[in-house]
Design brief:
Mean pLDDT: 82
Largest sheet: none
Shape: globular
Structural class: mainly alpha
Distance between the termini: 37 Å
Strand content: under 5%
Number of strands: 0
Low-confidence stretches: none
Helix content: over 70%
Oligomer: single chain
């Protein structure tokens, strides 16, 4: 399941990035809480099962990847003239995400001990609050004049996920760790 989710991310990430360049950062960042709300509501309604877990993993490119692509693009828009500030802001945001990764399993384990569907019910309620807060707080960072049209032909030329594989044909300078 993780491999299929990774393959979906590999193919969808350039498409999501191109969509972000065309439509702006906010619509892409709003996709994450909307899909997460639907995924958690469905799991709370149907109950956790192997099927709902597989579907949840398959939706990861539309939840986590969409948020991260939009977030990095928005930071790039805001801090394009200051790479050190970009790195510092990105690091701080990533640390906040890691705090979530530390406490979420503990909270979920406690909630499961009360009721098997309770973690997804709580997550659904959290996303019901998160969605309007994100809609209110997130501002568009890509100016209309900086947007690029996005088409399938443009995707194949500029944002092709297969082009990433060309990095490995250039030799070790791309994967070199020590100077």
């Amino acid at each position: 399941v993780q491999s299929v989710s990774g393959a979906l991310s590999f193919v969808l990430n350039p498409i999501l990035a191109g969509w972000s360049d065309s439509q702006g950062r906010k619509p892409l960042m709003m996709l994450s809480p909307i899909v997460s709300l639907g995924k958690n509501f469905y799991t709370a309604w149907r109950g956790p099962s192997v099927f709902t877990m597989i579907v949840g993993d398959m939706m990861r490119p539309l939840t986590m990847s969409a948020w991260m692509i939009g977030r990095q693009a928005a930071l790039g828009d805001l801090l394009k003239h200051s790479p050190p500030k970009y790195a510092a802001a990105s690091s701080k945001i990533e640390m906040m995400g890691q705090v979530n990764m530390i406490f979420s399993p503990m909270i979920s384990a406690y909630l499961v001990s009360i009721g098997i569907r309770l973690p997804w019910i709580v997550a659904t309620c959290v996303y019901l609050v998160t969605l309007p807060v994100c809609a209110w707080l997130i501002t568009e960072t890509l100016l209309p004049e900086d947007r690029r049209p996005f088409s399938v032909a443009d995707f194949a030329r500029r944002a092709n996920p297969g082009s990433f594989l060309q990095l490995f044909t250039k030799g070790p300078r791309y994967v070199r760790i020590n100077p």
